[in-house]
């Protein structure tokens, strides 16, 4: 394909499930949770060999624009697409498509990823993104990459592949919301894929499909049309009346959705417990950051930015130390930290 390819990175949100490390001013995508660099920095570095630094666009909030520019070398202010307010991924990616079409022309393609993923095989990741972008343009569709599951995980949505288009490309038969363990086990055995949130399409194809199947964005599209196709972000997002995800607003309604299988060590780093899978372990399965000493302790996640943490005879704990605040919970409860944070006193909830 000779049409330009852009990469759009979703990098908004706070990541409250990583409290007390993640805060509104320092959300998880700007933290070194997997390696030595912030996750967003690592995400951009993975994409540069595919599209070049100049064709990477970051969707985020105004609050994070300056920290992102400081964290990612080579980005310019024009590459930060600021959402004036949260309005759902459907509005965000539609706005990104407007920008890609304006910058790259009617045939410009875009791949969409999140800033908080772990990727085990970056080269295979890039080749899969390129294949998805080519498939979307060749077959006039909206492509998604479904991850070949490594386990029956109830924390993910699933994709049922349908009609075969080519050896690599199939139509999506349906999307399934997060199942329970027995159903997830059945779906993995039947060849279903994890719904990763990786997308690829021509920008104009997404805009056309939003017009066709997403009435919720009708007012925003009307504002876009009135502005000759290039409204301000404030005008566009101001016309969005309610938040809706790209999955619900477009993909679950469209008949043009394609899926390619991806196997490149993908993991959604959504909770402290996920670090057990993506960080290096010691011999007892402890995933640690900072000065940590363990004895007769196994399968713990420990992160300390100052001082030392010593664990003796405990298992499956999450321990996080930051600026005089210590969190101790279990790996099983780590997914529910937002519930905890919502009940905390303001001085703890609003750490900076």
Can you offer a commentary on this structure?
This protein is of the alpha/beta class. The chain has two domains: 264 residues, Spore Coat Polysaccharide Biosynthesis Protein SpsA, Chain A; 78 residues, no CATH class. 32% of the residues lie in helices and 28% in strands. It contains twelve helices and 15 strands. A five-stranded mixed beta barrel has the order 6-9-7-8-10. It has a four-stranded mixed beta sheet with strand order 12-13-14-15, with no helix packed on it. Helix 1 links the parallel strand 1 and strand 2. Helix 1 crosses helix 4 and helix 3 crosses helix 6. The longest helix is centred in the middle third of the chain and has 17 residues. The chain is globular, with a radius of gyration of 21 Å. The model has no long low-confidence stretch (mean pLDDT 93).
Give the CATH topology of the largest domain: Spore Coat Polysaccharide Biosynthesis Protein SpsA, Chain A
Round the Cα radius of gyration to an integer and report it: 21 Å
**CATH homologous superfamily classification of the largest domain:** Spore Coat Polysaccharide Biosynthesis Protein SpsA, Chain A
Total helices: the number is 12
Weakly predicted, low-confidence segments: none
């Amino acid at each position: 394909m000779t049409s330009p390819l852009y990469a759009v990175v979703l990098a908004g949100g706070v990541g409250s499930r990583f409290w007390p490390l993640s805060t509104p001013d320092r959300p998880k995508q700007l933290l070194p949770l997997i390696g030595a660099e912030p996750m967003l920095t690592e995400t951009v570095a993975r994409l540069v060999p595919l599209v070049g630094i100049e064709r990477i666009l970051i969707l985020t909030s105004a609050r994070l624009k300056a920290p992102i520019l400081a964290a990612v070398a080579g980005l310019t202010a024009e590459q930060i697409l600021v959402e004036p307010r949260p309005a759902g991924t459907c509005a965000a990616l539609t706005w990104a498509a407007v920008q890609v079409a304006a910058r790259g022309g009617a045939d410009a393609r875009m791949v969409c990823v999140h800033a908080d993923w772990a990727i085990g095989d970056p080269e295979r990741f890039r080749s899969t993104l390129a294949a998805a972008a080519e498939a979307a343009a060749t077959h006039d569709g909206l492509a998604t990459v479904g991850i070949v599951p490594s386990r029956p995980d109830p924390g993910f949505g699933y994709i049922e592949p349908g009609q075969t288009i080519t050896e690599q490309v199939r139509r999506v038969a349906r999307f399934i919301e997060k199942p329970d363990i027995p159903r997830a086990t059945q779906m993995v055995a039947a060849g279903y894929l994890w719904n990763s949130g990786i997308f690829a399409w021509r920008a104009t194809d997404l805009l056309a499909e939003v017009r066709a199947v997403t009435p919720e964005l009708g007012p925003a599209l009307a504002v876009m049309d009135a502005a000759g196709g290039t409204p301000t972000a404030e005008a566009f997002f101001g016309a969005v009346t309610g938040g809706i995800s790209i999955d619900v607003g477009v993909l679950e309604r469209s008949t043009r959705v394609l899926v390619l299988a991806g196997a490149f060590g993908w993991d959604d780093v959504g909770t402290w417990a996920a670090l057990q899978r993506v960080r290096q372990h010691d011999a007892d399965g402890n995933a640690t950051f900072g000065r940590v000493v363990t004895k007769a302790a196994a399968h713990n996640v420990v992160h300390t930015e100052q001082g030392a943490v010593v664990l003796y005879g405990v298992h499956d704990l999450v321990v996080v130390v930051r600026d005089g605040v210590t969190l101790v919970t279990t790996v099983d409860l780590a997914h529910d930290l937002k519930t905890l944070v919502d009940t905390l006193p303001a001085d703890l909830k609003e750490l900076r």
